[in-house]
Amino acid sequence: MTDLFFYLFATLTLGCAFGVVFSKNPVNAAMFLIMTFLGMASLFVLLEAYFLAVIQILVYAGAVVVLFLFIIMLLDVKEENKHRVKPLTWVASLIGFALLILGVVAITSSDNIKATSESLPEAAGASLKNFGYELFTTYQLPMQVTGFLLLIAMIGVIVLSKKVKTDS
Amino acid sequence: MTVGLEQYIAVSAALFAIGFFGVLRRKNTLVIYMCLELMLNACNLGLIAFSRYHGGMSGSVFVFFTITVAAAEVAVGLAIIVALFRKRQTVQVPDLNALKN
Predict the structure, then answer these.
(1) Where are the domains of chain B?
(2) Which CATH number fits domain B5-94: 3.20.20.70, 1.10.287.3510, 3.40.50.2300, 2.40.160.10?
(3) Which numeric CATH code is attached to A1-79?
(4) Could you report the per-residue pLDDT of B62-73, keeping only the tens digit for each?
(5) Which of B24, B79, B92 sits opposite A83 (nearest CB)?
(6) Do B3 and A2 touch (CB under 8 A)?
(7) What does pTM read for this prediction?
């Protein structure tokens, strides 16, 4: 049953990712992006990372994609019919894609990736209590630094989007 | 075939490859940025899969930090794109050729 769900959500995620890459209209790409994030959150649930699945939906599908849609609306982006993709670009991107896929096949078919034991260990990331405990003990410093980073990002966005005053 | 670590890693890496393909192929800065997000998410999936099959917390906590940093990065990046649009009136990559020649 879990396997069936895995294949279902993996197909959804990968299919919608192709939709992001190939849709002409940026708004459609953003919609496909939401579906990709939902599929990925489902995969997180299958991996028993419930907290991260909720965070994924809240932050990515809720905040990031809405921000993208706002910017698309603000900029009134025209569809990119004006520029044709050069054959060289096509070849280069296909070669890059093929090389990455080749790497995946090489890694997954070798014996390097194996779970540490045959029986699945207990899912430590499943409980929110573990998360809170780790964040405020072991990872206390990164937590503080992340908070500072968010402050810097906020100030940076305000500075960037302020109208530049021109003297004279 | 039962689903194990390999299948999750394969999905993660395939997603990364799709995002990379999009970054190379698309001309619209916003869509390129969306594909970057796809690549970040692919890494998150790989980290969570490894964390689940390893049995520790560190992978999950790292994904937590990655999501936070990615959100901050999106805000700053989109502000940069808006500033770029104000200055050049375009977000198409071929038109942003100030450094060419």
Answers:
(1) 5-94
(2) 1.10.287.3510
(3) 1.20.120.1200
(4) 999 999 999 999
(5) B92
(6) yes
(7) 0.88
| ipTM surpasses 0.85 | yes
Which tens digits make up the pLDDT trace of B10-58?
899 899 999 999 998 888 889 999 999 999 999 999 999 988 888 788 8
Q: Which residues in chain B touch residue A33, judged by CB atoms under 8 angstroms apart?
A: 34, 37-38
Residue B28 φ/ψ, nearest 5 degrees: -85, 125
Tell me which residue in B3, B54, B55 faces A6 most closely, judged by beta carbons.
B3
Please judge whether B41 and A21 are an interchain contact, meaning their C-beta atoms are less than 8 angstroms apart.
no
Suggest the residue from A6, A160, A165 to mutate for an interface test with chain B (most B CBs closer than 10 A): A160
Q: What is the 3-state secondary structure (H, E, C) of chain A?
A: CHHHHHHHHHHHHHHHHHHHHHCCCHHHHHHHHHHHHHHHHHHHHHCCCHHHHHHHHHHHHHHHHHHHHHHHHHHCCCCCCCCCCCHHHHHHHHHHHHHHHHHHHHHHHCCCCCCCCCCCCCCHHHCHHHHHHHHHCCCHHHHHHHHHHHHHHHHHHHHHHCCCCCCC
Q: Which of A33, A113, A160 sits opposite B9 (nearest CB)?
A: A113
Let me know how long chain A is: 168
B53 close to A (CB below 8 A): yes
Q: Which residue of A has its CA nearest to B1?
A: A3
Considering only CA atoms, which of A45, A160, A83 is closest in space to residue B76? A160
